Every structure is written in C-alpha cells, then in structure tokens.
Amino acid sequence: MGANEKVDCLIIGSGPAGYTAAIYAARANLKPVLYQGIQPGGQLTITTEVENYPGYPDGVQGPEMMEQFEKQSRRMGADIRYGLATKVDFSAHPLKVEIDEEKWIEANAVIICTGASAKWLGIPSEQKLNGYGVSACAVCDGFFFKGKEVAIVGAGDTAAEEALYLSKLCTKVHMIIRRDEMRASKIMQDRVMNTPNIIIYWNTETDEILGEKKVEGVSLKNNITGEKIEIPVSAFFVAIGHQPNSEIFKGWLSMDEAGYLKTLPGTSKTNVEGVFAAGDVQDKIYRQAVTAAGSGCMAALDAERFLGEKGL
Ligand code: NDP
What we know:
With 312 residues, the chain is of the alpha/beta class. Helix content is 24%, strand content 27%. The chain folds into two domains: 5-117 and 242-309, FAD/NAD(P)-binding domain, CATH 3.50.50; 120-238, FAD/NAD(P)-binding domain (3-Layer(bba) Sandwich).
C-alpha cells in the first residue's frame, strides 16, 4: 500500500487529550496533524455545563470549551482535519494509519486519543431525553439536580461511585440493579448499602424513562416477578460502563480485556515504539477532561523525546 502523505507526528482524536497533545506538539515544532474522528470535540460535546475544569471560574459549556481547545491548537500551528482513522499498520517504521478507508498516512510518531464512549441501555426514551435529565456522567451533571430525587442504573464501581456522589447532592438516589448482586468491589458495595438515601432495586430493569420534554420519572420492572412500578425522579443516570474506542488497534497494541490500551506506568508509551496513548482510551478510572488533557501533554512530550532520540 502506498502512502499518500508523510508526517512527523500524527494525533488521532479530538477530545481534551488530542487537542492538548496538538498544542504541545505544535509548540515543540513537531508539525502535528490531528484527525478529529467521528465526533469532533469528543464526549464533552454531549455534555452541558462544565464546572470542574480549572480556569473557568464561571463554568463553560462543554461544546464551547472544545471549540476553544481546537482554536488554541490551530493558533499554535497544528493541522486539524476532519477524518476518521480506519486502520493501522504498526509493523514497521514509519508507522501507517489509514484515514477514511481511502488514504494512508505515514508518521514517525502516533498519539492515540480516541477516547471512550458511554454505553447506553438502548431504549427509545433514553435517546429522546438525552441531555434533558438523561446523562451518562453524574460528576458532570449531578449538580443540576441538587435537592431532587434521581435514579441511576448500573452496579459496577462507576455506578457505585456515582451513586455515592449523587447521594451527597440529591435527596434520594434510586439505584437500579439488574441482578441480585453488584459487580462493584466489596468496599464500594458496603458504602452504597450503608448510605441511607440510596435505595436499591434488585433484579430490576428499566422499562421506560418517563417525561415528554424532561425526565419526570422512571418505570421499572422486576425481572423475576414481572411487577412494574413507577417512581418520580428528575434525572436518570446511566452508569453501565464505557467502551474504549480501540477496535482498530486490536492485534497491534496491548490492551486489557475491556479494550483499554495499556501504557507503561507513568508514561504514555504503548508496547509499540513511537506509538503513544492518552485520555480515556487508556484510562478507565479517572476519565475527567482535566486528566485527559494532562495525559495528552505527557504524550506530546514523550513523542518529542522519542523523535529527538531517533534523530527524526
Ligand atoms: P463494569 O463493566 O464494571 O460494570 C457495568 C455494570 O453495569 C455492571 O453492574 C453491569 O451489570 C451493568 N450493566 C451493563 N449493561 C447493563 C444493562 N443493559 N442494563 C443494566 N445494567 C447493565 O463498568 P464500570 O464502568 O463500573 O467499571 C469499569 C472498570 O473500571 C471496572 O474494572 C471497575 O472496577 C473500574 N473502576 C474503578 C474505579 C475505582 O477503582 N475507583 C472507579 C470506576 C471504575 P452486571 O453486573 O449484571 O453485568
């Protein structure tokens, strides 16, 4: 396969990690080319207000913040392009990445910032009310439901952590669990069970989220007895896991069973020399805009060092 273009530093993905990598790489004169992927700006473009990113004392809308990230990386000289990485070939140097199933780019260093996508239940009301009380991020949106009753679905560590977070803000947290046990670690389970305003519904599935313009309640079904109940809530949080966007790297890069890319601890280095990973595609624990941005910075610095050492 012939390459159509050769670049020093190729960045895949346009969330906080990708743009921060682009800012640092451009300032280090690596002439980065960044492909934005299917959702330019990433997960933050589907949130509303961001109040926990330092430097914005009055908060900022997620989409606006990502426009500013993009603007800043363009101003530093990064070449930002619309396009999706569809395949890679990391068998030799230079590294090769296919864009939009049509052209191949050769790169001396590749920084992967493809992020993760929240999993959803897949029911119609969830889609209809997304952003109107339905959210996949309690830390982002919980605050807007201070003093209200909310529901959360899921039973892993994320759901447990988010339920505890919500319990400090909301009057009641209705936690919907599909089996008769939780997947979360024992300590998190204990904390959830010992929090008086978290009410657990075992063996329960979400039938529908109720409300026309905003979330007003949820209809639940006990999957053993078939009994249905409705509870009034102002928000519905989905915490059933994330899917890292790492499909195209299978077979090339080390990843865990869930598909999160593995990096050498304390660095952004993957198992392939010259390939670095930052942001949610390699982080299943913190998953914050600010931690993603920090790891994007690390990746650009690691790439700069790598290119310098190789004399590229
Ligand atoms: P998990 O995959 O661990 O848990 C997902 C949960 O969602 C499970 O309880 C699962 O139920 C439930 N679920 C999945 N699909 C549905 C569905 N369609 N309807 C209802 N429930 C559903 O994801 P997490 O995001 O919680 O955690 C991911 C990883 O990150 C884990 O390894 C976790 O330990 C780690 N983590 C660690 C943290 C920490 O250490 N502080 C914090 C957050 C995450 P079921 O059990 O029935 O399959």
